[in-house]
Write a structure and sequence with these properties.
This protein has 14 helices and eight strands. It has 419 residues and is of the alpha/beta class. The protein has two domains: 82 residues, no CATH class; 327 residues, Rossmann fold (3-Layer(aba) Sandwich), CATH 3.40.50. Strands 1-2-4-3-5-6-7-8 form an eight-stranded mixed beta sheet, sandwiched between helices. β5, α9 and β6 form a beta-alpha-beta unit. α1 crosses α4. The radius of gyration is 22 Å and the shape is globular.
Length: 419
């Protein structure tokens, strides 16, 4: 029992230390996954630490007591900080905001910010259509594909959520650790369009944002077919997908960011959800110290790379934006969502980890401030000690992921019920 007490307390202590580490640059990637696991399983580490402290006290392993107490206390504190209430909805939509959500909708939502164990399962089973073509790559016959998640029995709220996966603009694809999330949203009556957009170095920012806008146009054109109200289309995504969602949502008709074939289409959306999406690309360049990539060999735009080899093109801004900051300063401003804030921007939900080594909370908060100054209903949620990608790992128990889902539920319900 002495050994067991030491192991339990030591493991809890180790995970609590990992939770506190805030590292950027190369070291940030080394500690990222351990830190992500530490936060996602924080309730488990808290229980193990408490058990180790009790066993240590009972069997004379006194060194295990403070270790276990610290680990359990730190993890319990993290759970509480991630799941406590905030006034974001009240500030954005007024004190009676919750009255705008129908009681039958509330029943399908997450009822608490952290229900300990969350069963994210739609019942009855939703309709899942895979590899649905929504457009073609310009100048080719290559189809652009999406997955469509639809409520069973046609019981729909009329809202469509277009989701853009994270990718560092170079990796990833649709259906990337999001099935539980989509099943949960569809159970509430929302339609989900999971988009596979083209990546670097096949396309640059113009090609990507064009794909996103084609997805919006396609959903609106097919709205009646899927029981969707074309005025209730929401864009969202994580990381690079969050960036593209913000950019397309804030600049729907921008002449430089809109393909010629869509200039007459309605590309507006009623809301945007960003999970840790970059908001200022020049700030991101400095924050991630991307100067280290400036010596990489150039790659011709239009090059199609096998998925297993795409990682080397992650965050290659010389491809995405046509040059490094000193070469193409206009592009860094053009591709930054913060540059396109105006009073007509759609309602926005921002969710960000305070210790994200990819996307800085300072940049997210700067966007939030600018949106507030423009009178845009905006909610900004910062999760303490939380890293990049927090919403995708073990959402059934992860306190930050569950709390974020609680906010997503209510944000989408408000937009679905908006006149």
């Amino acid at each position: 029992m002495i050994i067991l007490a030491t192991i339990l307390s030591g493991l809890s202590l180790l995970m609590s230390v990992l939770l506190l580490i805030y590292a950027k640059s190369s070291l940030g990637w080394i500690v990222w996954m351990p830190k992500l696991i530490a936060g996602a399983l924080s309730p488990v580490w808290a229980i193990l630490g408490a058990a180790g402290a009790v066993l240590g006290w009972g069997y004379g392993a006194l060194w295990a007591v403070p270790m276990g107490i610290f680990g359990a206390g730190m993890m319990s504190w993290y759970v509480w900080r991630c799941t406590r209430d905030h006034d974001g909805f009240e500030n954005a939509y007024g004190p009676g905001w919750s009255d705008q959500i129908a009681p039958q909708q509330i029943k399908q939502m997450v009822q608490k910010r952290w229900p300990v164990f969350l069963k994210m399962k739609a019942s009855p089973e939703p309709s899942w259509e895979r590899d649905v073509p929504f457009s073609t790559s310009p100048g080719t016959d290559r189809q652009l594909l999406c997955d469509l998640w639809r409520p069973a029995g046609g019981n729909t709220t009329g809202l469509a959520y277009i989701y853009l996966h994270g990718s560092a603009w170079a990796i990833g694809d649709k259906d990337m650790y999001t099935r539980l999330f989509f099943q949960h949203l569809v159970a509430q009556g929302h339609t989900v369009m999971d988009v596979s957009y083209r990546l670097c170095p096949e396309v640059d920012i113009y090609g990507m944002i064009g794909d996103v806008k084609r997805a919006v146009a396609w959903m609106k054109a097919n709205a009646s077919r899927y029981g969707v109200n074309p005025e209730k289309v929401v864009l969202g995504g994580g990381s690079a997908g969050g960036h593209l969602a913000l950019l397309a949502g804030y600049a729907p008709q921008h002449p430089e960011l809109t393909p010629e074939d869509l200039t007459s289409a309605d590309l507006s959306v009623c809301g945007v959800i960003s999970h840790y999406g970059p908001t200022d690309l020049l700030f991101l360049f400095e924050y991630m110290k991307l100067q280290k990539l400036e010596g990489e060999p150039p790659v011709p735009l239009g090059t199609v790379i096998a998925p297993s080899k795409r990682m080397r093109y992650a965050a290659r801004f010389d491809i995405l934006l046509g040059g490094w900051p000193q070469d193409a300063p206009h592009m860094y401003q053009l591709a930054s969502p913060i540059s396109h804030v105006h009073p007509g921007c759609p309602s926005t939900l921002l969710m960000q980890g305070a210790q994200d080594h990819v996307t800085s909370q300072d940049a997210t908060c700067a966007l939030y401030t600018k949106l507030l100054e423009s009178g845009v209903p905006t909610i900004n949620v910062i999760f303490p000690w939380t890293p990049h990608g927090f919403d995708l790992l073990i959402p059934q128990i992860n306190p930050a992921a569950q709390s974020a889902l609680y906010d997503v539920d209510r944000f989408l319900a408000l937009l679905a019920n908006k006149d």
